[in-house]
Amino acid sequence: MKVIERPVRTLVENRVSFGGPNAELSIYDTWLPASRVGLQAGEVLYCGMVTGRKVLHCPDRGILHFLPHESFVMAPGTQVAIDFPDADPSSPTTCLTIEITRERVAQLCDHLNHTRPLEPVLEGWQYRDVPYLLTSHTSATEALIRRMLDVFTESDPDRDVLIDLGISELVVRMLQLQTRDLLMQVCDATPDASGLTAAVNHIRAHLSEPLDIDVLCRLACMSRTRFYERFRQQLGCTPQAFQLQLRMEEACRRLARGEQVTRVGLDLGFSHPSHFTRRFQAVFGETPTRYRKRHRQVGTQ
């Protein structure tokens, strides 16, 4: 993370904030172990871990371990209690948050509904008040967060415009993730609700196999051109990228349980361990071996 001078006022959740249009970026540092420190979200609150580990006590969700290369999103009006088991004067726990106004989120939803309407079963673009969302984030999201840190903390003459562009991209990423999760729920309940859900369900059911676009087009009852256009419009990526997302998420779940890297890669359709390692590192910024080790360490604590 970019080195920023941060005055120390407290050794637990020392906060330095930077305002911008419709958003506020904050950096939190903790140098001492602490328990049950409260955090409340007044607006949509995006959190990204930088160093260390937080243990989150979430009402109705139990305990979540929040690690680097992960994103945690809180809906407005929610709160969590946080433990800092690993904080140390020589190795602080550091987290970055970006609070985004509901008005800006609503404006972006209106724009997407006008320019990129969703399938009727998905009920339009909207921020769904899921209380808590914890997910491993991609290298692209990591790069976006670092870019926004630069913009918020510098005095560029176009600062406000650049902040709004970054906020817009971050919100769209969150909306796409929520919409994709909703689409999965629709697929579970009614796989043939539409041509798109039929194609998505087929990808999920054959995750270890190479994609056959002709089969997906037949299931969706669309030409190849129309299928690609509709898929990207609804999910923000190509079918190939979507399959890779699902494979990487399943890999994360299995590695966190301690399964062997080689076995996981082969089961998910990667012909060679080195191919799996390259793709995993390109997505998450660390090797599957490192990811497995970090989560096994958490599991033993």
Descriptive report:
The chain starts with 13 loop residues before the first strand and ends with a helix. It is an alpha+beta fold and 301 residues long. The chain folds into two domains: 14-186, Sandwich (Jelly Rolls), CATH 2.60.120; 205-299, Arc Repressor Mutant, subunit A, CATH 1.10.10. 47% of the residues lie in helices and 21% in strands. The protein contains ten helices and ten strands. The longest helix is centred in the middle third of the chain and has 31 residues, at 159-189. The model has no long low-confidence stretch (mean pLDDT 92). The strands form two sheets. A six-stranded antiparallel beta sheet has the order 1-2-9-4-7-10. Strands 3-8-5-6 form a four-stranded antiparallel beta sheet, with no helix packed on it.
Describe the SSE topology:
Blueprint: E1 14-20, E2 23-30, E3 34-40, E4 44-51, E5 54-58, E6 62-66, E7 70-74, E8 79-84, E9 93-100, H1 102-115, E10 132-136, H2 139-153, H3 159-189, H4 195-205, H5 213-220, H6 224-235, H7 239-256, H8 261-267, H9 273-284, H10 288-299
Antiparallel strand pairs: 1-2, 2-9, 3-8, 4-7, 4-9, 5-6, 5-8, 7-10
Helix pairs in contact: 1-3, 2-3, 3-4, 4-5, 7-10, 8-9
Task: List descriptors.
Jelly Rolls, 301 residues, 6-stranded antiparallel sheet, 10 helices, alpha+beta, Arc Repressor Mutant, subunit A, 4-stranded antiparallel sheet, 10 strands, single chain, 47% helix
